[in-house]
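Researcher: Please generate the 3D structure of the following complex. Treat every line as part of one assembly.
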Amino acid sequence: EDKVVQSPLSLVVHEGDTVTLNCSYEVTNFRSLLWYKQEKKAPTFLFMLTSSGIEKKSGRLSSILDKKELFSILNITATQTGDSAIYLCAVNQGAQKLVFGQGTRLTINP
Amino acid sequence: EAGVAQSPRYKIIEKRQSVAFWCNPISGHATLYWYQQILGQGPKLLIQFQNNGVVDDSQLPKDRFSAERLKGVDSTLKIQPAKLEDSAVYLCASSPRAWETQYFGPGTRLLVL
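Model: Done. Output below.
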């Protein structure tokens, strides 16, 4: 059975801290791995990763994929209260069929 | 560019009742997806349309769920009859083509009592 597992499920840190969110996967077909940020209800796209070892960056967020060990990490540096959200990892199995992990709920306290 | 629109935003019904959700994708997006997100879980794909044709409905509980996209633009998802375990957020997403990034709507939160 295809599965995507995220850890930790929940994380509470102080503003300014750096956090690392983990995503491991076991799927029959792998095309890419995506990270989404979900505030309130609608997930918003962050990154798409297809190649191992190439870091994607956007401001304070960065992500990298390891296709040999079947995992990805999402780093957020100098966290702000606006980073509080659920972060979802999803694997694209082709034709954008996404298998999502259960998400990591990140809370940033001032 | 307008985003994916969904309605209603919230719906409360009793078990065994029927309910329908509506989705209008981003203009020009050929691919449309319906997801079910139960509290504490990631979204689960229910059905994927390419224009007005079904690409994947393998996880759609077809005894009670149905979906259509008759003109290849907006779509409706129906549940009949609803069960308690259908309580969830129903997310609609669209992408320009099947292999491109999906954009999500705000979702409809359904509570079945």
